[in-house]
Automatic annotation (TrEMBL):
Upper lineage: Bacteria, Bacillati, Actinomycetota, Actinomycetes, Micrococcales
Family: Belongs to the NAD(P)-dependent epimerase/dehydratase family.
Species assigned in the record: Frondihabitans australicus
An MF annotation (GO) of this entry: UDP-glucose 4-epimerase activity
Keywords on record: Carbohydrate metabolism, Isomerase, NAD
A Pfam family the protein falls into: Epimerase
InterPro entries, sorted: Epimerase_deHydtase (IPR001509), NAD(P)-bd_dom_sf (IPR036291), UDP_G4E (IPR005886)
Broad EC category: isomerase
Domain NAD-dependent epimerase/dehydratase: from-to ranges: 3-249
Residues annotated as transmembrane: none
Name of the protein described by the UniProt record: UDP-glucose 4-epimerase
Length: 322
């Protein structure tokens, strides 16, 4: 009995693999390495190099490793880029999920934890979202994640698939010194690269309706996130009923200026961020409540903001020495 982690060589997926092992589950990784890194897969963990669009590979992997459940992390995750590449985004995130569910149904695999996104909410009317907040995604990425949730829901009705979807905003930090965020689009690696290049990071707008004038968002530590994925898998294995979706959120968030202050402290590189114009469409504040996940999935914010920064910085320096 084992759990397949699609995208298990990626930043989030590799942490999920370790969390599954920590819960006594046996992870198997499938990843096409389009953004994942092969060395992120621990020694001894089976690894299938390929795409979730390959139904035959999915079936072989399930058969060869006795897969009984799936944590579905694989996908095209860049919301901004998805606007320029909608067809690619839908192929990877919608067609890919449908292929995965088809392979699971063919092989009698009846449980899945889906890595969704708070992007399903778009820009809500409220500054704190709960699971029932209306869904108004504003990018092909957000739309594709919502469709993924619908696919799970409908397959649950049709075939008894047991499932839950986990929604979250900004994932940061590192739970292991050899795992780092290599995304060219995420805030932490962008700031780190600017500092390493001797450039000054910038803040887009400082006149928002927030305590310090900069946008407030949820930032959650990747290791905390991974724990809740693994707990969800274990509970599905035990036959427990879970909510169809959970927010993994802080409930209060942090501002961009607070992030920059923590960056200066955590890296030891003093800087005063440049202030750039606002970006169109950025709301003042969006955070998510995580009360349901705290009740059911052992969700909690175990790391301070400074710990998020320092863990990410140490992993970044270990990967590419400054």
């Amino acid at each position: 009995m084992s759990w397949l982690v699609t995208g298990g060589a990626g930043y989030i997926g590799s942490h999920v693999v370790r969390a599954l092992a920590g819960e006594g589950l046996e992870p198997v990784v499938l990843d096409d390495l389009s953004s994942g890194i092969a060395s992120f897969v621990p020694e001894g963990v089976p690894f299938a190099n390929g795409t979730i669009l390959d139904g035959d590979l999915l079936r072989r992997t399930i058969d060869e490793h006795g897969v009984t459940g799936v944590v579905h992390v694989a996908g095209f995750k860049y919301a901004g880029v998805s606007v320029q590449r909608p067809l690619h985004t839908y192929e990877q995130n919608v067609t890919g999920t449908a292929r995965l569910l088809e392979a699971m149904a063919d092989r009698g695999v009846d449980r899945i934890v889906f890595s969704s996104s708070a992007a399903v909410y778009g820009t809500p009317d409220t500054d704190t979202v709960i699971e029932g907040t209306p869904k108004n995604p504003e990018s092909p990425y957000g739309e594709s994640k919502l469709i993924g949730e619908w696919l799970l829901r409908d397959q649950g009705r049709a075939a008894g698939l047991r499932h839950t979807s986990l929604r979250y905003f900004n994932v940061v930090g590192s739970g292991e010194p050899d795992l780092y965020d290599a995304s060219p689009h995420n805030l932490f690696p962008l700031v780190f690269q600017a500092l390493l290049d001797g450039k000054t990071p910038r803040i887009n707008g400082d006149d928002y309706d927030t305590p310090d004038g900069t946008c407030v968002r949820d930032y959650v530590h990747v290791a905390d996130l991974a724990i809740s994925h693994a707990v969800a898998a274990r509970k599905l294995d035990a036959g427990e009923t879970l909510e169809s979706a959970y927010n993994l959120g802080s409930g209060d968030g942090v501002s961009v200026r607070q992030i920059m202050d923590a960056m200066a402290e955590g890296t030891g590189i003093a800087f005063t961020p440049e202030i750039a114009p606002r970006r169109p469409g950025d709301p003042d504040r969006i955070v998510a409540k995580g009360e349901l996940a705290a009740r059911d999935l052992d969700w909690e914010m175990r790391h301070t903001l400074l710990e998020m920064v320092t863990s990410a910085w140490e992993a970044r320096k270990a990967a590419v020495p400054a």
